[in-house]
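Priority: low. Protein: Zinc finger BED domain-containing protein 1-like. Input follows.
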Amino acid sequence: MENAVEKNIQPAPSSFKADVWAHFGFYNIDGKKEIDKTHVICKLCKAKIKYFGNTTNLRTHMARHHPEDANEVQPKVRNIPGDQRTLHQCCKLPTNSERAKKITQSIACFISKDLRPYSVVENEGFRYMLKTVEPRYAIPSRQLFAEKAIPLLYEETKKKVAEALKKATRVALTCDAWTSRAVQSYVTFTAHYITDNWELESRVLQTTAINESHTAAHIKENIQSVAQEWQLTTTDLVIVTDNAANMLAAAQLGNFQHVKCFAHTINLAAQRALKLPSVSRLLGKIRRITGFFHRSATANHVLKQKLLELAPHKLTTDVATRWNSAFDMIDRFLEQQPAICAALLSAEVRKCGAGICTLDETDVANAEEVAAALKPLKEATNIMSEEATPTVSVIAPLHAQLLHETKAGFCGETALVREIKQAIHEDLAKRYTSVTDKNMLHISSSLDPRFKTLPFLSQDEQRLVDCVFVFFYGALMQNEEPDIPNEVLDDEGPPVPEKRNTSLLNLLGKTFTNVRDVPKSAGTRAEEEMKKYLETPSLSLSEDPLTWWRSQETVFPLLAKLAKCYLCIPGTSVAAERVFSTAGDIVTAQRSMLTPEHVDQLLFLQKNMYIPADGKKKMFTINYYFGCYTCYSTLQPNVAAFLFILIMALYNQL
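Result:
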């Protein structure tokens, strides 16, 4: 009987390719030759199992009841060659798809932010990297990035900068001229303002090619053109430039409020001291030694071996246009002097450096005196190079301090030190002497809670500044708003209760009802708030004045408006000069044919474009979603497809 039942188990059709069918079959339908596919029969234990069109139940039965034979029916994984692409990889992304647009925009950001040439998209390594990351993406030509992608990114960023400038209480400009490797003259303008959150922001507005002579009239026209393009009010505009004659004349022609760059002022005073015969000879001797170690590979190698316990710093050589490079050269020479002496006395160096000898004791002492005399100027330059904190308010205190330290008459000074200080003092004394310059700098310092007491001025000068301050302050408030009752200016408090009709009100109401409603003039309000402001403790020199104003804005609402108008002004044109070094990385010898329009766009984007630093968070989220999809990939095809669409939708929202 068992043999008869065994013969009735029919093998699975040949179209069923799974290995598990070797242990399962079907019964024939009673009285017919057709097989009954509603159930499968296990050939090992004759169990009858419900069949749903797949092998899941069959494999489960084998694993539970016949584990010794289950390994023989494991599904075989098809090995796909590593170089064989899937259908998904073969489909190219449409150029108008969101994915392709995002990749194109990210490449444009990479080119402009990292100062890469347009031709980077044609480089073999770059194309290989993108092919690995996204094989379906077709890289556009360099022409598309130069004529469409970068200009589009420029317009989007420009719109954001323009909106920020409109919200600013006041905008100050710095400008400076420079020349590219292609011998093309440019002038760069940067904008500076304080945000509602009391943060000092700097933006590069534009870089314009100048094809005419750098006269005051042409520079004035450029400034007016920038103000018109960015919708800046010229009557309230402040320009910060160096002390060049054409810049000073341009500010006068345009009737702009003008601040002379204090870093450039320090440079002029220091250069005058460096040109003294005794200092110039000393610099020549040090320059000869440092130049020798730069030229000779043998001497440089021996110097590294002789460093002993000294810091492993390289010797530097000064640049004629940068006075602080001369200070750095002297300072580094004094630091490395023991190693320099040991290296020059070695046999290898004496063979190739005949005639090169170190400084004698007198020269070393003179170098130490020169470095000590110039150190205050170096520290002042570092202070003025800050961009995150106000610097115009620091000019007056620093200028007064430098004049005091370079004043003659200190005991124990050598003739060389007196000569250097005299040269510096004479040059600094003739700067910022006009009434307009003094008013601008002193009001800025009084609005800085670190210097508001103006201790560097005499009492008569302080009283004069207070009068000028109240005058300008009252005039500003009268232009902005009419006189209003004092209660309106107070902070909002609880609602005033309704007046009850009492006998006292009936008898004295006409006399005392409106006593408190007497309006105060703008000058009176300015004096009262200024007095209250001066009574508060001064801020520490290590603190940020903008942080202080953020917390005190509601206490001094009128002064806060004026502080935003003055503290946004930079004390130097360093911001514009820093663009020069960036421009040198853009207009290189290999890219000297860049048009002025492209130079302007690339500099603007490199300085102003913001790239959010949330890549790690985004990648974690994407990996999480795709991990979920992998877990659900064993579901029915229609369910898996729905989950995939959902995952891609979430990805595009990141």
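The longest strand covers residues 185-194. The CA atoms of residues 217 and 574 lie 23 Å apart.
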